[in-house]
Structure formats: C-alpha cells, structure tokens
Amino acid sequence: MSNILIVGGSGFLGHYLIKQLKNKNNLYCYINRTLIKDFSLTTVKFNLRNKIKLKEFILKYKIDLIINLSSIASVDICEKFKKKAYKTHVIIPRILSKIGKLLNIKVVHISTDHLFNGKSRTSYSEKSAVNPLNYYAKTKKYSEKEISKSKKNLIIRTNFFGNNKINKNSFSDKIIINLKKKKNVHLWSDVYFSPMHIKYLCIVIEFLINKNEKGIYNISTKKISKYKLGVLIAKRLKLDFKKIIPTEFDPKKFIIRPKNMSLSNQRLLTKYPNLKKYLLLNSQINILKKNYK
Question: What is the dotted CATH code of the domain comprising 1-293?
C-alpha cells in the first residue's frame, strides 16, 4: 500500500481516479473544492507554492507518489486568463517536480492531446514533435518540460469522456442530454481525437503506476472525428443520431486548436499487449452505455 498525494483531486478525472486507487492506497488530496462526500479521504489545504510546507507534509505522511491532476481544461479560459493558466500548468508542475526530485519521489503528470499543430494525417506518437497552437497547449508543453527534469517521472497524454456527475457536463454528457431533449447537436467532422472512457483510463493509469513506468505514454483509442464519435454514441444508446449535425471547425469563431489531436497507443500496446481490451473504441462505448442506463 502506497501513500499518494493527489494534487487537483476534486474534478472529473480526480473523482474516478480516487475511486480506482482508494482501496489499495492511502490517499491525500490537495484540492480547491469540496470532494464528493462518499470519499473517506485526508484532504490537504495549504499554499502549494510554499515549498517548506509541502516538503514537511510529504515527509510527515511518508508520501511515496505524487499525482498531478491540476488543470484548466478550457482552451478559451486559458486564452483569457493567461496568468491563471501559467500558474496551474507550469508553476505547480515545476514545484512538484523539484520536490519530487529532491525527495526521490515519482510524479505522475496528466498531460493533453492538444500539443501538436494537427497537420499530420496519422496519430501522434510519444516521439512526435510538439508544436502548440494556443496558450493552453503552450502551457501544457512547458508543464511536460518541468516534469521531464526527473527521469523517473511519468507523463500521460490522453483525452477522456464519460458520465461526469462532479461539475460540468463532459463531451458525451452534452450529446446524450441534448439528444434526449430532442435537440440538434452540432459536432466537428474535421476535428479528430482518440478518446478514452474515463473508467478505463484510470485502470490503465493505475497499471502504469504499479509497473513503475516513466517517460511519456499515450493512453488512447483509435483516431475518430468528434462527429463520428457522437453518431456512434447515439446509435449505441438508441438515440436519434440524425439530430447530430456535422460542421467544420471555424477559426473565426473559436480559439485555434489542432484538427488532428489523435494519439498513437502503439508504444503502450507493444509493451503491454494485455491492455488491448481497455484501448478499443468499442469498449469505451460499451462501458458508456452502462453509465446511462
């Protein structure tokens, strides 16, 4: 059993990852909001930039692992509030990485699939050149640079969906809620990604932690457009997929972002072929269907 400090544990991913890890580990969660009440956890509240306090806490509770989930997921908010985005995506990872390296503790950092310019026709590997298009992606690039200063750290690039009961609706929530209300749903047909259902994502994250993996790993499915995924979800849940309207990304209306964000999972599958069942797109849709029964 490990003692794990989770930074940013009150969001969508934090909720699921805590559920995945809590039975086999002692979890300490640094949060900026109240956690779901059914979690029996030790919560931490102090200035994270106070390195002395952070070090004292880690030593006192004999922390074995730090997981950084802190993130501002909205591209638009990051563009509008750049100082806040820089603090969250760069300063916090920098501090955690420095403390981790000083105390010989691994940091697991959740990154993004927005890091590239999107011009590739194929999915991006862990070795693909990073070329961010917006401020969100630029700060996430810098966060990876900070985390990479310790060779024992693990960076996970991914994108996820699922039934979000914590805060705002997820990609799949928005589709299903609107279709149930008989409303049209407009989705980009020229923007591609490779999303994971959040439950399977957390299973793979735990697996990599237990294997003491380091470096960069993509956790992803196959390349699919947001429109086609929406149609697939609607069909599987027996909703009116004809109400999903294909549209093209308009850079005049939205902050610029890559049209291809898909990530190759070949590194992960080559080393751990037993994970294949968790990385199939069909598996993600099947588990999503169970969530909305």
Answer: 3.40.50.720
Tokens encoding 218:
């993509």
Distance CA 172, CA 35 (A): 23
Which tens digit of pLDDT belongs to each residue from 97-129?
A: 999 999 999 999 999 999 999 999 999 999 999
Please state the length of the chain. Answer: 293
pLDDT in tens, 38-67: 556 677 676 777 788 888 889 999 999 999
Q: Pick from 125, 126, 200: which is nearest to 160 by CA?
A: 200
Would you say 89 and 112 are in contact if contact means Cβ atoms under 8 Å apart?
Answer: no
* Better-scored residue on pLDDT, 205 or 28: 205
Yes or no: say if 92 and 70 are a contact pair by the CB < 8 Å rule: yes
